[in-house]
Amino acid sequence: MPKDRPASRCSLGRRTSWLFWSSMSGLGGLYLILILLLVFVDFQYANWVDIQTSLADERVRFSIYLSLTTCSLAAILSIWVAVPTGYVLARLGRDSIQRNLEQRPRLNQLAQLIRHSVDTILDVPIVLPPLVVGISLLVLFQTPLGRALDHTTQDFFSWLGFPGIRGITYEIPAIILAQFTVAAAFAIRTMRNTFEQIDERPELVALTLGARRFRVFYTVAMPQAWRGTVAAFTLAWARSLGEFGPILIFAGTARMKTEVLSTTVYLNFQFGNLRGAVVASLILISVAVVALITTRLLLLSGYRGGRR
Amino acid sequence: MIRIRELAMRQGSFHIAGVNLTLPDQSYAILMGPTGCGKTTLIEAICGLRPVTSGSIQLGDHEVTRQPAFDRNVGYVPQDSVLFPTMRVDHQIEYALVIRRIAKKERRARVAELAELMGIGNILKRFPQGLSGGERQRVALARALAFRPQLLCLDEPLSALDPTTKSQISALLKRVHSQERVTVLHITHNPAEATELGTIVFEMVGQDIVRIRS
User: Which whole-number Å values give the CA distances from A99 to A95, A141, B74, in the listed order?
Assistant: First the structure.
């Protein structure tokens, strides 16, 4: 490459590069403006006094509290399921099946078919309309098995110290189950991608050093996956916070009983109280933004730590 | 004595069969062959990381053909060392000893001994990120030797290093072999390594392994 490049070409290069980056980021910029506008008009519509009045309302406070509790529980459940499932999906992928069942083509084909089916089924909650998830949960708990579960869990909850919770359907557990059903699918996807990004070879070396699979998983694979785990948890948590359709159908909208923030928005809107709906939305937005920022900070500090 | 008899493996469209190989105790065996002839596949089968179709692998008095990798007692140094990314160097080295429930004092002593042999005493508290190629290879060697394996498998241990580091690691491998009294199987495509290190040299010619020097 010539060292004494003419100045005009250099500036032309800078200009085309500026053109490139600005045109590439133009559409994203418009979308960014849309998001900011949405939040801005919400804040314009309701004033600070409205927010204070709402926060003083016992029912609103209950729904904030219930929202935070249920979506945290749903996110914990999702991660609990997603971490092992994501690992299995990532490590028993196409290549691994191919490698281990090379000598048995029939079994190989069957295993590949099962893998594809499992993969597809796990994606169903992501593509299903939320209302359908709610209806399906409701129907599930109308079957003899579901009724039995409803009945037995009542004793379980009173044993736990919550005698007020009578089973699952139209009770608080229904909210958590509805949130979990959708959030877990997203968390599994994230964990699977996380583990797929992680090189398998250190795990194989750990096996030769004498470690069993469980130890390999928690000493070699898991420490590399914490960033993905935090991301999956946040995604599951945010999904659960915004969940509404399945909760409406499966848990109902009883005030001070199964009312979460998204339900508050809906109920206020339904009864013509648009201002109340906007205030509840603002609370939802604030909670979500705080959660997102916390996660970002957590990931950022961890990043610096890891680079040490 | 390490004995491999009539070993057959398949990997995609590639397959090898009828592999025979015998390594006397405490020998430094070099297995040569062009890239893609199945050397790595063979070493992975010996370590228990790849299933075999037929044949047998015998380590000492034990037949290990169907044994899982964690039961074999074979040290493995893969190509480009493959360290645990989130573990401190000293923890990597004592990893196999922690699994075997060796007391902390003995573990420390063994780590110190290996660190001295490898010349890595100054990087024990560091993480693998930022270590040089030579340092990584030394750590991988120490990690594989910590539990005094019966056999040490080295997959192209010198191929990714610059000439100076290469000669240092080469000298180190000689020292390791004499001091640790371990049987070594070192695979390479470079005849110079065979001349310098091997007490016994094999070459893969097609499907067969031919002894060319002993």
Answer: 6, 42, 21
